[in-house]
Amino acid sequence: MSPSILLSQFLLPLSAVSLGRFVISLNDPHQDFHDPLRNPDPEVAERVQTQYDSIRHSVKHQNEASQLTTFLSSSFSKRLKASIQITADQAKTYYLNNAGQWFRNAVQSEETQKWIERTIDEGEDIYVVVAYHTLFDARIIEQLGGQSTASGNLAIPVPTALTVPGIVVPFANIADPMLGGFRDHTEDEQRQFIAPGEQIFAVQYRKVRWNWFASNKVDKMTLAKKTWWERYDRPRYLHSESEDMIGVELEDEIALEGDRDECITESGEVFVSAV
């Protein structure tokens, strides 16, 4: 199973990503994408977790939800060079059921086939969104501690640092004396923000593997096992024995570049974050 990847800017609204979407970037599923015509819509499975709060659990007795919250807090503290604590009332995961069959149906569309060919010609990899993970009413606590910007405080506001430019997540300032607020000592000072509603924080993909081949060199039984079509630029190759067909399928594994932090939950799901 491929890992779920934490978004580079932490939060995206539900409207920014959809299951079954074809994308070219693992970090920006809301950019340069293709949503296939879906008839019918994909079958979706959902899983809900509550008490998504690592503050109230010891390391020894963390459940899956709090385990992942700890990973989120650590990942974004490193990325933002600040002390960040993330909690939420609830977490939810949406899975694309029977992704392989849905993919085979989706690529029957001429529009999707042409998008795939054009993207391959441009030298891009292609991925399909097969799951995403959300938080409800995510609360972000920045521990100020009287530090200077160089030693830990953000030079820009938390909401700006944690969201994608051009996409609005309606952060609100909150004051909660039970979680610190402004006290007598600056080392206890905190800033708190909440992102109301349901927001996406991680996405799982499968990679599209493709290959060109010559139709006159493949037998019918082999073709019957493939998802394929005739290239739309085929007229250029009519007078040669060039590869006039394209075959596509989904891969289970994704090779990730660069250093990554990793979290494996109790259920076996893997989450990764860029270091």
Summarize the structure.
This protein is an alpha+beta fold.
What are the key terms here?
275 residues, alpha+beta, 5 helices, 17% helix
Q: If you had to describe this structure to a student in words, what would you say it looks like?
A:
It is a single chain. The protein is of the alpha+beta class and 275 residues long. It has 5 helices and 12 strands. It has helices at 64-80, 99-106, 110-121, 158-161, 220-224, and strands at 4-6, 12-13, 22-23, 44-52, 83-96, 127-143, 172-173, 190-213, 227-230, 245-251, 260-264, 270-274. Strands 1, 2, 3, 4, 5, 6, 7, 8, 9, 10, 11 and 12 form a 12-stranded mixed sheet that branches. A hairpin with a 5-residue loop joins β11 and β12. Mean pLDDT is 77; it is low at 54-61, 146-155 and 175-187.
